[in-house]
Write a structure and sequence with these properties.
alpha/beta; Aldehyde Dehydrogenase, Chain A, domain 1; Aldehyde Dehydrogenase, Chain A, domain 2; 2 domains; 7-stranded mixed beta sheet; 6-stranded mixed beta sheet; binds ligand TXE
Length: 499
């Protein structure tokens, strides 16, 4: 086992109005290390009063210095923040791995990459332009401004804590909004360290506030708070629906990113040396705990036996172990309830008659017995009617589904309520161009899988979500357009007549 560094501070603090604070109740809750199964940090347990204080601070900051600061100055603060995150990337990555059990290699990659979002959107801050409209009324000058919305509530899950928050915070801040961020109760530690960097970078107090606590205790009061203008949410679809309904009461703007059941399609003409690791990395690299997991492998029937055999052989070699060890390839599941859910789905798949080709159990290895592991699991000959083909498991469970031809591959790929992502493996250029258009998914990868960037839009078709994150257009999710009319002709208005 690698050394597990102790946490520097015994009890962590939230960030409200530029101050490091405990919950007003003084309550804390334990955060667990999924590899040791033991509590390793104490996180403030915010209540409604803390949410109220955070929203109040954000609303006040929105009307203060942040509002009058030039967009270039705003962008420069974001650039400074990016530099500070880059300096702390290694520390943040270790905190994330301890808190959510995902591989250190993956969290390192994410924490080193996060500064690019703040640089990119910081650079966009002073490129938010309005328009001059050649209006159809003589003597009238009409132009538009794009203005921020106000207080944005960012609600994030446990699987990629800082990265998924960054996808919301960077465009929202660049657009001039202020933030109340509630990270997942299962992975709040890195957020609280991230929070220490905002003031250092020069953000005015109250521009970014972080409250930690349980979704079922404070989520609803944050979403429905009258001073919150927009909710940006990533999480499960059941919670997403609830957030959407609560936000509707106040007609708030929302973006939702709600996971998927993504198809990773292998055609007989694929380069198999690439396709097989592509299937494996699509599902097992993050122990299946990623919204874009390629949890359905669609394999052309003529190569079905060959692919499943190679897939099982390859997945069998995956090293299960301590996520802090860079050699580990499959880490634990982040939470105990999530492991129970994954094991339950494995039971359902067996009961429905899917052929279990690999895994399916808690690993039988005493050296990792304290961790919340599930073996990489592969089911063959899965049918569309099975729950394992339709529902998001969010664990290391792959369903392999055979198909005959292109049309059937598209039909199966599109036959779920979700539409977040899809992958395809082929050497046929025509097919590589033809098929992405037919796939109902917000991201399609050809001969690659699981790539995202600050430069390219990301989001869901169908019930995988609403709105887009990343890429230039994401900033418009945090802006509203105002139309300004000026009579430049000095005319005297005719009363009772619309102009
Ligand atoms: O997520 P939740 P959970 C899926 C995955 C998983 C399932 C449940 O299938 O098994 O969701 O995971 C906050 N109002 N994904 O329960 O509940 C909560 O505190 C406002 C997919 O951990 O969606 C956390 O901060 N907020 C996903 C955030 O919502 C509420 C990533 C997400 O938690 C709330 C994670 C409420 N009423 C899980 N209740 C993806 N898209 O990548 C909870 N929250």
């Amino acid at each position: 086992m690698t050394t597990r560094p102790p946490l520097a501070t015994e009890k962590l603090s939230m960030l409200i109005d530029g101050r490091s604070v405990a919950a007003q109740s003084g309550d804390f809750f334990e955060s667990f290390d999924p590899f040791t199964g033991k509590a390793w940090a104490l996180v403030p347990r915010a209540g409604v009063a803390d949410v109220d204080a955070a929203v109040h601070a954000a609303a006040t900051a929105f009307r203060g210095e942040w509002r009058t600061m030039t967009a270039s100055a705003r962008g420069q603060i974001m650039m400074r923040f990016a530099d500070l995150v880059a300096e702390e990337a290694e520390k943040l990555a270790v905190l994330e791995t301890r808190d959510n059990g995902k591989l250190i290699n993956e969290m390192r990659m994410q924490c080193k990459y996060i500064p690019q979002w703040f640089r990119f959107f910081g650079g966009l801050a002073d490129k938010i332009e309005g328009r001059v409209i050649p209006i159809d009324k003589p003597g009238v000058f009409n132009y538009t401004r794009r203005e921020p919305l106000g207080v944005v509530a960012a609600i994030t899950p446990w699987n990629s804590p800082l990265m998924l928050a960054t996808w919301k915070l960077a465009p929202a801040l660049a657009a001039g909004n202020t933030i109340v961020w509630k990270p997942s109760e299962f992975s709040s530690v890195s957020a609280l360290f991230f929070g220490l960097l905002f003031e250092k970078a020069g953000f005015p107090k109250g521009v970014v506030n972080i409250v930690t606590g349980f979704g079922n205790e404070i989520g609803d009061c944050l979403v429905t708070h009258p001073d919150v203008a927009k909710v940006a949410f990533t999480g499960g679809d059941a919670t997403g629906r609830r957030v959407y309904q609560s936000a509707a009461g106040g007609l708030k703007k929302v973006t939702l990113e709600l996971g998927g059941k993504s198809a990773n399609i292998v055609f007989a003409d694929a380069k198999m040396e690439a396709a097989i690791p592509g299937l494996v990395s699509g599902i097992f690299a993050a122990t299946g705990q990623t919204c874009i997991a390629g949890s359905r492998a669609l394999v052309q029937r003529s190569v079905y036996d060959e692919v499943t055999e190679k897939l099982v052989a390859f997945a069998k070699t995956a090293r299960i172990g301590d996520p802090l060890d860079p050699e580990t390839q499959v880490g634990p599941i982040t939470t105990l309830p999530q492991r129970a859910k994954v094991l339950d789905y494995i039971g359902v798949a067996n009961a429905e008659g899917a052929a279990q080709l690999l895994g399916g159990r808690i690993p039988d290895d005493a050296s990792i017995a304290d961790g919340w592991f599930v073996e990489p699991t592969i089911f063959g000959n899965v049918k569309q009617s099975m729950r394992i083909a339709q529902e998001e498991v969010f664990g290391p469970v792959l369903s392999v589904i055979p198909f005959e031809d292109e049309d059937e591959a598209v039909a199966i790929a599109n036959d779920t309520i979700y539409g977040l992502a899809a992958g395809m493996w082929t050497q046929d250029l025509g097919r590589a161009i033809r098929l992405p258009e037919r796939l109902e998914a917000g991201s399609v990868w050809v001969n690659m899988y699981r790539a995202t960037s600050y430069l390219s839009p990301f989001g869901g078709y169908k019930q995988s979500g609403i709105g887009r994150e990343n890429g230039q257009t994401a900033i418009y999710e945090y802006l509203q357009e105002k139309s300004i009319w000026i009579d430049a002709g000095n005319s005297i208005p005719a009363p009772f007549v619309q102009r």
